[in-house]
Hints:
- It is built from 7 helices and 19 strands.
- The chain has 375 residues and is an alpha+beta fold.
- It folds into 2 domains: 3-46 and 151-215 and 320-370, 3-Layer(bba) Sandwich (FAD/NAD(P)-binding domain); 88-147 and 218-317, D-Amino Acid Oxidase, subunit A, domain 2 (D-Amino Acid Oxidase, Chain A, domain 2).
- The strands form 3 sheets. Strands 1, 2, 9, 10, 11, 12, 18 and 19 form an 8-stranded mixed β-sheet that branches. An 8-stranded mixed β-sheet has the order 6-7-5-14-15-16-13-17, sandwiched between helices. It has a 3-stranded antiparallel β-sheet with strand order 3-8-4.
- Strand 10 and strand 11 (183-188) form a beta hairpin.
- The chain is globular and about 70 Å long.
- The structure holds flavin-adenine dinucleotide.
- Flavin-adenine dinucleotide is lined by residues 11-17, 34-37, 44-46, 48, 51-52, 173-174, 201-205, 209, 222, 224, 253, 313, 315, 339, 341-345.
- Flavin-adenine dinucleotide binds at residues 11-17, 34-37, 44-46, 48, 51-52, 173-174, 201-205, 209, 222, 224, 253, 313, 315, 339, 341-345.
Amino acid sequence: MSVTKADVVVVGLGTVGSMAAWRLAERGRQVIGLEQFPLMHPFGGFTGESRLFRTAYHEGSMYVPLLLRARELWVELEQLSHRDLLLKVGTLSVGQQGAASISNVIESVRRHDLPHTTFDAEHLRAAYPQMRVHDDEIGVLDYLGGGLRPEAAVFSALEQARSLGAQLCGNTPVRSIEERGDGVLVQTDDDTYLAEQVIVAGGAWGQKLDPRLTDLVKIYPLILTWFMPQRIQDFAPGAFPTFIRDRDGVHFFGAPALEGYSVKVSPDRSLPPVESVTSMPRTLDSAVLEKLGREAAAFFPSLHPEPVHYSVHPDAFTETKVPIIDRSDSGRVVTFAGLSGHGFKFAPVYGELAAQLTEDDAPALYDERFSVAGH
Ligand SMILES: Cc1cc2nc3c(=O)[nH]c(=O)nc-3n(C[C@H](O)[C@H](O)[C@H](O)COP(=O)(O)OP(=O)(O)OC[C@H]3O[C@@H](n4cnc5c(N)ncnc54)[C@H](O)[C@@H]3O)c2cc1C
């Protein structure tokens, strides 16, 4: 049996893996990346036209330093790739005054002095007549927010990694990862690799790669829906920001019309968890679509409530939605898991953390709450 040696093997070349390969290769590490599907496949967590980027953060102000660094890296990747990856249109958060998520947004902008505008209900209606706003709602426009283009972003990170010498292999499922005294043995169907270190970034397939994840993450199918407005000009990028809205337990997020005819208005988790990605539904009952259409049109009255397009994608969630980022006891295997429906915006800073965790004991932006023990 011949064994190929590498500094670092990255397992999974989706959102985190592509960025880890880029940031590791940029540090001069010899990287081999292994992806079970063709590179740039449609099955993972990184497809569906757009992802929100926001710094005024519903999930808590603890994430803001990571988000500010992520934004710098998104801009760097844009410059290197000569592509628009981050649409700098701002993100509008709308919620009921005093509710936890909008309170976290306000705490984020105050604590970190983020550029923003706060609106009461009357000013929200005047600024965004596209929305039906209730009297108890407020809005915060996060000027550093916007929309990411996930397929182009992952492609660009892989392209950078490759140009820096990384060897990237599609159609190469990893079957086992075994830590030994002299390194980590990574087994595929045809090859064996011995790496100094391994990054595990398997997304919704991660439990098969790291047994520590079994009871810590669940796989949820997430729905994306697009609706036709009466006047597309009202939702053009520039006329409307990306947005996120919570009201009475109904959570929506979305993006302006990027392809020129429909608006993305998508719900939070609205389907039960599944055992594995293969058991995930890819088509939806009309009752589910009707409910989503009613809720979207209640917020944006000019939308036709029948979605013009929808898709279903997997993501792995932890109980608290705090991601798992941790090393094995030997320090040789670094695992990313449970990005919990809000991980894309962090991708390049997670890639940077992956590289740092293979070298440093305590990277400045690492938070102990990400550890397995923290869950
Ligand atoms: C519909 C939807 C909307 C979202 N919206 C937002 C948003 O607006 N903003 C935001 O920040 N986040 C958002 N998220 C969350 C974010 O997109 C995900 O958290 C993130 O993409 C997950 O990244 P990942 O690297 O963990 O998984 P993935 O990107 O899926 O990558 C995992 C990769 O590992 C590969 N792999 C797995 N097992 C193996 C193996 N054994 N061998 C080789 N390769 C393997 C997979 O094939 C895959 O390519 C959304 C997620 C979804 C699904």
